[in-house]
Design a protein that fits this description.
With about 290 residues, the chain is of the alpha/beta class. It contains 11 helices and 8 strands. It has an 8-stranded mixed beta sheet, sandwiched between helices. Helix 4 packs across helix 5 (about 150-170) and helix 5 (about 150-170) packs across helix 9 (about 210-220). The longest helix has 17 residues, at about 150-170. It starts with a strand and ends in a 5-residue tail after the last helix.
């Protein structure tokens, strides 16, 4: 079921609401670029574990209004607005890839509402002390993120036409990434169900280019919170062979988040997080209280 939620400042958020019990709610924060219809476990798994998986388009993606100049920490306002609209007091949260830092923001800034949080193949803050942020990162990602940092207007000028091309032919997104993928990641994205889901996700995400633009700028700017101040239990999941979010980012976060369970899969890369999501949900729900 699709719903529109209004935020306190009048923006619209497009929300995907499950038709299940609200007893075990989990927010799933999508990647970059991404949308509420992005990768998720099969319905049968969600029914068996009783998870009410809630997703929404971050500002500027899909059916959600843009929020120019947003920080990573601002995701907290939107998660709280959706939870309030659905009558949820407590919930878990998981973010994959670009959604990972946004999930950590919820853990840091909503400690009375978040039961557990998970960040999968997440980036560390751009200003992370002692971290060579670009080390081990695919050349294409280095170029894109460097431009977002040094010349945001130029970055936006590049993303706008690229988004239009991908919107018309979402397979281009995976074709652009293909040379950077490990053999394992290629097998994962080549699965017919996963491939179809990813294409649907990219097409919906890029109705406009601004979510992608604002995400990249937010992720490479100060986040607005300190991961070291997170007090709720956190699971970090990462693949050691990831070149989109290098494992050094995982190590930096794992060394600073106090109540962390850190899982580094030695043979996995970026898209293996799709395969690991059910196990991560099991961990989140093991600590979830009723809403």
């Amino acid at each position: 079921m699709h719903h529109l939620v209004r935020t306190a400042n009048g923006r619209r958020l497009q929300v995907e609401v499950p038709v299940t019990s609200w007893e075990r709610p989990v927010f799933l924060l999508h990647g970059m670029p991404g949308s509420r219809v992005g990768p998720r476990p099969r319905i049968r798994f969600l029914q068996q574990c009783g998870a009410a998986l809630i997703s929404f388009d971050r500002p500027g993606y899909g059916g959600s209004d843009r929020w120019p100049g947003r920080q990573v920490a601002d995701a907290v306002e939107d998660v709280a607005a959706v939870a309030d609209a659905l009558g949820l007091k407590r919930f878990a949260v998981v973010g994959r890839s670009g959604g990972g830092p946004h999930a950590l923001a919820c853990a840091a800034l909503l400690p009375d509402r978040v039961t557990r949080a998970a960040a999968m193949v997440a980036l560390a803050p751009r200003d992370a002390e002692g971290l060579d942020w670009f080390a081990g990162m695919a050349p294409f990602n280095v170029q894109e993120f460097r431009t977002a940092v040094t010349d945001p207007e130029r970055y936006a000028a590049r993303i706008i036409p690229r988004s239009a091309v991908i919107r018309r032919n979402p397979a281009r997104m995976l074709e652009d990434l293909y040379s950077e993928l490990t053999e394992d990641d290629r097998r994962i994205v080549s699965d017919s169900r996963t491939w179809s889901m990813l294409l649907r996700n990219y097409r919906e995400a890029l109705r406009t280019p601004y979510g992608w633009i604002d995400d990249a700028i937010a992720l490479t700017s100060p986040w607005g919170f300190d991961p070291a101040r997170i007090r709720v239990p956190v699971l970090l999941w990462h693949g050691a062979k990831d070149v989109f979010s290098p494992a050094s980012h995982f190590s930096w976060l794992a060394a600073r988040i106090p109540r962390v369970k850190a899982v580094l899969e030695p043979k996995a890369a970026h898209f293996a997080s799709l395969r690991a999501l059910p196990q991560v949900l099991d961990w989140l729900l093991a600590g979830a209280s009723r809403s």
